[in-house]
Every structure is written in C-alpha cells, then in structure tokens.
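Archive entry: two folds, one per protein. Generate the first.
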Amino acid sequence: MRYIELLSPAKDFDAARAAIDHGADAIYMGGARFGARQAAGNSIEDIARVAEYAHQWGARLHATLNTVLYDEELADAERLARELIAAGADALIVQDMAFREMNLPIELHASTQVGNTTAEGVKFLEECGFARVILERSLSLDEIRQIRQATTTELECFVHGAICVGHSGRCFLSRTTSARSGNRGECSQPCRLPYDLKDEQGNTIIAGKHLLSVRDMDLSDELELLMDAGITSFKIEGRLKDVRYIKNVVSHYRRCIDDILARRKDIVRPSIGRSTIEFTPNPEKSFTRGASTYMLHGKSAGVASFDTPKAIGESLGRVISVKRHSFSLEGKATLAAGDGICILSPKGMCGTNINRVEGNEILPNKMEGIVLGAKLYRNYDHRFNALLDGSRTRRQIDARAELTLSPIGCTLTFTDEQGLTATIEHNIALAPSTNAAKMATTAQRQIEKSGDTIFSIKDVKVTGAENFAPASLLSQMRRRALDELLAKRKAAPRHHKIMPDTGLARYPYPMVTRYENVTNSMAEQFYRRHGVEQIEPALESLPTKGERVMISSYCLRREIGECLRKSHKLKGDLFIEHGSARYNLEFDCRRCLMMLIDHSQKKQ
C-alpha cells in the first residue's frame, strides 16, 4: 500500500483554500523570500492559516525555498525556514544544499532546480537525507523507471502546466538579457520571445517565430503509467495562476486519480474528504498553450508553439463562411457573447472577443484574421468561468454518530472515516419519553445536522430512545462533539520523513561544475563533506558571455525536421537572435540534447 498525492500550487491563501476544497492532497507555496516565484510570496501568518486549513483533511503544506543563496543571506534564509516550520509547514522544497547543512527539523524535498535527471544523482540525494526528489520535466517513462529501480525515496513529477524548455536550475538565459535570474526567482522568460533562426553566414532560415516556446504539459491520461513507474506525487505547475485555474485543473486531476484509486487496492490517497463540485472540469478551458506529453514517451517533434507563447485554449474547428461582420464555424462548436477567441490563419495569430451570436452567425468585436479555413480556439469561456466563480464546492469528511440516552444522561460519540473519535457526555436526569420511536427520529435528525462544518454525518445510531432528551440539548452536544473532532483532526499527525544526512554518501560525479551553482560557504561545506575536491565557481555569479546558458531536451533541429541523425539540409552552425541577444546552438546527438551558448551583445 502506498500513497499517491495530488499536489497543487497556491500563490496565496485563497488559491490554497480552493486547491484543498477541490481535492488536493497537498499544496506548495512560497514564503516571503527565497522562492523560485518571487511574485508569489506570502507572510508567515498566511502560511500558518493555510497550514491550519489544510491539516483539517490531513493535507500537507510544502513551502518553497528553492532559490540559490549567497553567504550574506544564509542567516535570513535559516530564520525564515524555522519560521515556516513553526507556522506548520510539512516540508521544505529547496535547491541550495545550504539548507541540508542547517539541521532543520523538517522533511526536505530536492527541487527540480537541483537538476534531477539521473539515477545516481537521485540516489545521492536520497542518501543525503532528502525524503523526496522532484524530477526534471523532460524525463521519459523509461528514465523514471530507471531512477525508481535505483532508489527508494519518494519521486515527484510535474503532470500539468507550463514547461521550462531548459533543464530546471541549469538555465541562465534570463541573465543574458537582464539582471533577472531564474535561479533567484525572477526569470524574465526570454524563452517565450520571438527569434530568428540563422545560419553561420547570417542567412535567415526562420523569421520572427517563438522558437524556444513549447506547449504546456497535460499528463492526465498518463497517470497510471506514472504510478506504476514509481511516482508518488503528481504536481500541477502554476504558483502564479488564479483561483479559476486552480479550481478547474485540480478538480480534473482529482477525478482522474480517483478513477484509478477506485479499482486498485495497492494505492491510496494521503488525505481524506469528498469534494462535491458543481461544474464539469475541463483543463482546455483554463490557461493552456496546447496540450503535450512532452518527452514522456521519448523525444519527438511536435512540442513547440512557434506561433504564440500565449494561451490559445480549446480548439473549436475551422471557419466555413465569412461575411462582412460575421462568420460561421464547422461542427457543433458553441460560442457566446463575452467569449475570447484566438485565430490561427496563414498570416499569423490574432484574437478578439465575441459580441453576440445569432443562430449560426458569430459576430466578433473585430474580423481581423478571420478568413475561410482559419483555425479557431477559445481562450476565454465566459459561461464556464461564470460557473467557476459561482460554484460553492465543499470538501467533507464522512462521520458516523452513536447517541446513548439513559435516565442519568446522554453520551454522544462521533467517529470520522479515518477512525478519529470525539465523545461528549452530559450528566442530567432524563424523563421517560412518551413515544420512543418519535424520540429516536428526533434525535437522529438533530445529530445528523452538520451545518457548515467539514463533516457529513452519514449514519446515526440511537439507543435508549425510551428516555427523552430535548432537541436543544442534543444540538448543543452535537456542536461540542464536532468542535472536538475538528480539533483532533487538526492535531492529528501527518506522514513525515525527516531523514538525517550521515555524510557517508559520496558525490557520484568527478566535480561540482559551475552549473550546480554553489554560491555560498554552507553549500560548499556540504559537497566537501561528501567527498568533493573540485568545485567550480557558480555560473550564477559569473558573466555568461561565451558560456552554455541553457541545456535542453528540446531540439530545434528535430522540431523543424533537420535532425542531424537523419537526412538534413542545414549545414554548419546555427544561431537564434532576438534584438541584441544571440545564441549559438550546439547539439549533443549522443545524449540527444541542445545547448545555447551566449553570443549576445549585452554588456557584462
């Protein structure tokens, strides 16, 4: 029996509450500093509120401290880590090995920014006391299986949302064009910009396309394969996403996972409670650049989004007729006033809103790009979003009640689905009831009222109904018992794996390179303890000119049909350019990787 966790992002308390209400087993969110999404920071007070809310259902809070640190920040980082622990965080997600040196009394997770791509690397982290390792997004199923066979630590993988085209933690692209660094939580996302592809003579091969922008991940049809490959936690990307996105996507994955759990006895969810939603989740109706399984089934073309880095939404089909102020679509696609559409035509991509719909005639705000044969996508569904906004989802825990009435008093016990109990006794003389059957019915109705609590009373057993208890007394006892049961739920232990670092593990590679970003003395101490003799200065702190600033499993040559392993026409070096930014593309065909070397004109 093992746990399968659904892990949701949360940028703030409202997003966290929505994630828990809609079925997340855990949420991850940032504190005030040192998180890889600087714009998604939260106060300690907010972290404490989220932890208390999540713990009612046995759900967990993972706090993100996954930026690299400098020596002058170590004291503040440790202080914040300990404050997060005191606030109720259940795990810390970290990139910098300085946190491993701080002897923190909490479960540590190795962030994907650590560069978790190999079995030997993950095994090393496990032996260093990391309870969980978050895998690089570009790994295949076979690579995940190899890691699982070599390790016992929990494995977490992304299953939905935006994909970093570069290997996480090994991308310095943002620093080549600005002072903002992805490893410091400030990525400017230059990978989403339009680029020209040029040969070494300067000839333009492709102009003005988003050559590094890849589609979003959707592995909702691959979850059982991932479970069997050894994944423990399914992670949704999006710590900057709004509550609508959280409601829809979390609900979708909750349904997918529950369908699998319902027919398998070897896996269970780590939290409890049923989420009753009032809409049919559909991830195509939330922010998406188009769905992709990325590299899960091997490296192949078709993962890029050359035309736009923005959300395109759900496909509606093609335009079959065009008039001066309106158009019609093929099939049964339905649009409504207020919807937003994205149009893909031979001249490019553009968008508009729908003003009104009259039968088959659709009248947009503007007709730009709407021509015969153009493909349409809906990137804003007005009716669906109104449904999300109006939904009042509740997550409830089933409980049963036993009420015993006697001449000398009442005893009420609630037992929830996890086996936690709360008992209230009230010593009071009870008169005989004139109608035992009526008393039993009245008692049952009073006790099963759970109101706005997190409990749903599914079964009430009443004994001693020949004794009369007033409804007001039963109501008072019910409230007290449910309050006590809730308090026990909040205080109940959750599964934790706080593991020591004995120092016996040996670093599996010859040296710690500049790409591992050792930027402080504590991280250096960590690697020295584990047998490392040579540590290169961190590229994070160095000029990037002439350096490899991205390593990627995505290959532009493969994407445009010019793979070097196959028949190809493009010879010599290739470059991509945007303004003063210029990168030489290098290809490691043995490992099937693409690298970007910084040749930009930015002063450093």
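Generate the second and append.
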Amino acid sequence: MGKIRLTTAQALVKFLNQQYVHIDGEEFPFVEGIFNVFGHGNVLGIGQALEQDAGDLKVIQGKNEQGMAHAAIAYSKQKLRKKIFALTSSSGPGSANLTTAAATALANNIPVLLLPADTYATRQPDPVLQQVEQEHSMAITTNDALKPMSRYWDRVQRPEQLMTSLIRAFEVMTDPAKAGPATVCIAQDVEGEAFDFDKEFFQKRVHYIDRKLPTERELNGAAAKIKKSQKPLIVVGGGVKYSEARGALMDFSDKYEIPLVETQAGKSAVEHSFKNNLGGLGITGTQAANKAAKEADLVIGIGTRYTDFATSSKTVFNFAETEFLNINVSRMQAYKLDAFQVIADARTALEKLYPLLEGYKSEYGSSIQTLKDEWQEERKRLRSVTFNRENFEPEIKNHFSQETMNEYADTLETEFPQTNALLTANETVDEDAVVVCAAGSLPGDLQRLWESNTPNTYHLEYGYSCMGYEIAGTLGVKLAEPDKEVYAAVGDGSFLMLHSELVTALQYNEKINILLFDNSGYGCINNLQMDHGGGSYHCEFRTADNKVMNIDYAKVAEGYGAKVYRANTEEELKAAIEDAKKQDRSTLIEMKVLPKTMTDGYEGSWWNLGVAEVAEKESIREVYAFKEKMLESAKKY
C-alpha cells in the first residue's frame, strides 16, 4: 500500500473527486462542485488546495454562506438527491451563517456537505479572531450550533481523522432513509497540516443506492387494506419524486381508480393533467383534494412526512373512520398517524403491489372528474378577480378597509391582483420551465393555482419554508437544469431577506428569472394576524409617518446588472416574460400587486396556531374558542 503526502485540505479535495453513486445501473460522480466564501479560516487551507488542483469540481464563489448553501440544497433537490455540492466557509460568522441552511436541508432530507472551518486544534493562539468562548468548556465553537441541524456532524482535529469522517459522511448522504446535511468541521490549522495518507483512500469509491424491497408480509398487509377500502386516497409526497415513481404511480392510480392529492414536495411528481390528480392537499390545498380527503376511508401516504400543512393540523381526514397505510424508506415517517407500515422504495412497492390488487376498483367512479371540474371553475373565478375602488371583495375573510386598499393602489400605482399575476405567469412561461418558491402567501397560491404539466418543474422548499431560499434556490435549480428557464416566485419580504446569489448568477452567467411580487409588506403574516382576530400590526412596510413604502426593487437588480422589467398589468407581464426568454442574462420582473388578493383556504384548511387564550378583543376570544372545538376532532398522535 503506497502513501501520498498531502495537507488535510488537499486530501479532502482529492477524495471529493473520487466519490460516485450507482443507481439503477447508472454510475456517475456524486460531488458536482464546491461553493465557497473564503475567509481567514479556510482560504489558506481549502482555498489553497482548490487553487492547486480542484480536479473536476466546479468551484463557485458565493456571496453569502446561507445563500450559497440554499443554492446547493436546491441543486441536490432538483437532481433528485443524485448529486450534491459541497460548501466551505470560514470559522465564526461564516459557519454560523450555515445554520439556517443546514436546518433547511435537514427538514427536507436533502444531502449537502458542509465544510465550515473551525478554531485551532492546538488552541495555542486562542481565542482567535471570531472565536466564541464559553466558561464551562474550551471545546465549544460556533460549529456546535450545527450539531442539531445536521444528519451527521464531526470535528476533524487531526489529519488522519479525515478519512473515517468523510466515509461516514458519504454513507449518510447516500442513504435514502436518512439523507440530509453532513457537517465536517475542520480545524483551520489542521487544514494546512500534512500527513502521509494511504493512496487507497483516494481510489474511486462507488456508493450503491439500491432500492429497498418490501417484504411479503408488508405487501400482503397493504393489499388487504386496499381491497377492504371503498374510497382510498393516495397522498403524493416528495419521496415519489426521489424514487422516480411517476410511471408506476400513474399506472397504479389509473388501473384501480384511486385519486391522487399532492403535498408541496410531491407536486409535479405526476403532471397536473393526469386524470386522477386532484392537486394540493391541506391548508394550501385545493377544494377538490380536501373534499376527497374527508371522504377517504384509507389514506395511502407515499414518501410523505405528513406535515401540518398537508394534514391541516391533523383535521383534513375523518380520523374516526379512516385508516392509514404508509409507504416510506424511513421507518420514522412510515409510523406516522399510526399507519400500517411498508418500509420500502416507493416505485418498487407500487410495482409489487400492482398485481396483488387484480380485480379491485375503488368506488369513486366519475366523482374524481367531477371534483376536478369543480376546481377548474373555481380557478377560472380566481382568474377574473379585479380591483374595485368602491367595493372591493378580496379573497380572504379579514381584510383592509376600502380606504386602505385604495391607499395601496395609489402608492404602488397598481390595481394588479396577485392571483391574476400568478396565473398570467403560469400561462406565459414555457411548459418545461421550473418555478421555485419557499415562503409567504405565494406557496399557497402556487400549490392551488400553478399547473405543472412537465414532471419535476415545481420546486417548493416547504419543509422549512425558509424566507430567502427563493433566489439562491433558483440559482441551484439552474445549475441542475441548464437548458430550462427557471423562475423564482418571490415576495418583497423574502427578497429583502436574501437575494445576494443573484450577483452569483450574473457573475457565472447562469441565467435565472425573478418574478417579484411586491405588496409592500409581509402579506402572508398580516393575513394570519387579521384572520385570527388581531389588527394589522408591524407586518406592513410603512414609514415612521405611516405611509405605505414603495421601493424600486427593479433599480436594485438593475444596479447588479440584471435585465429588469416593471409589469403592473397582465399585458405588461406577458410582454416582460416573453422578452425575458430572449435574454442571455438574469432578469427581474417587478410586479406591484395589491395586498389581500391572494387565495384563501378552502374546506378542510384549518391551521392549529398558538392563539391567545386571554385577550381583550372579542374577535380573538372567538378564534380561540373555535380552535378548541377543532382540536376535539384532531388526531392526537
């Protein structure tokens, strides 16, 4: 066995170049590249190693650690977890900035390799610049904040520790059942320290991602439950995408007439036009999906975590009558809602269940199409909503006065409803374009209204719903889909949170498109306040003298070098999108949209929130009483 003398950082880079995955007979490199923001903790270690020999890794300079990590997460998510980016940051605030992104990856089960620099292993210069100190332990550093946000976490304080640490990290990231962020913190002095590594460590290493097979017991039990049911319903989660189970699911649903409803992560696993697809489920779901959920006597959850938005805080189903069957590679997820568990790959499980149900058919009949038709009529109604200065009827229950609405219309110089703007965009973008979103009122509008008729073109980060993901995530999706137009649907609140990776997109000529919906405030949370009996308090963007703010976001993007448009009507928006398609640089389309013109919840869309039990306002007391009533029917486990 030969030896090769390298620094720890050089060994890291060499190792990353030799990691491959093998899936369904295909083999390809797992690590696409490495994002960086260099600082004193990593520029002389990992920075030197990359400058000397990056191998085949794409090296991309980020502008904010959280932003570049969100881009890496979006890349992996869009690639169906088959490929990743690594990230390197300096110690201190650089690594602290990764915490939010690590949590985003963890909540969404997305593999990403975080490589934050750490303080000195020798401790001789301590406390070094940007080092935190705790009286009770010298071992604690900023990177300990990443422990609860990582699926795997380790600290490398000797060069030889790198070998076992990296192998363990890649084992975790390539396991479908526990995929998530792996954090390997490397002491900054150790990054530059040399060691005689075994050459064998740098040989090509293949990580086999095999499909987990269901057992005979699981298959027979699942088949028996489905055959016993009259109105089964399939909840399509993100696991359907990662398993690439589209064809198997459509065949299964078609043959046995079982309707599909989608979570945010599962939307576009199967195209909207599929005859049994009833759309989004739960709080941000469609009228059709929630009606079907209430009627179902068996819910078949495939690759879903059953978040409160999908289950309407465990009230969307008739728990007194409904049974649950869960197909998931994760035992933890499969056990949810006290379901019968099939611990298996989604596609494989469906393929093996398919012949066991021969002769079965649900009792839905033509009612699936009836539900779809009803929803299309509602979608058409939403498309026709217009602003009326005398008597405006918005889509939510508790809303601004007519005077306030007119103030917004005058200040923002617009009468454009958000629903119309979104539907116009959906009609105008290419059919294979990818839309990216994460937070605010837009995820609800998108899940209800956006029709994705090409698989895997709906990219919502709703596991963590992290404001600021949108633009960075769009860059990540563009890296994964270089031949497609990619659009960030982002509100002004999220834009202000984080848009630094627009500069990165411009720098590397990775064209992204930003659809900026500006209603001058945190509109979603403002709705939440007013919908639950409160007033409008600190969620509007107003000046000290109480004037609505009108910020020129287009000018901000123009200053960076993007092609910008201002579109406050359907005609202007259509023209802007069509012209943006012709551009070879990133674009931003600023739309001033009226508040209170987003969609509202439908039947079965209740959300359990921490409403004040004691309040002066009668309206809040009424909401609390309604909450207590709803909790009586909610499932407790």
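Annotation attached to the second fold: Residues 367-383 form the longest helix (17 residues). The longest strand covers residues 587-594.
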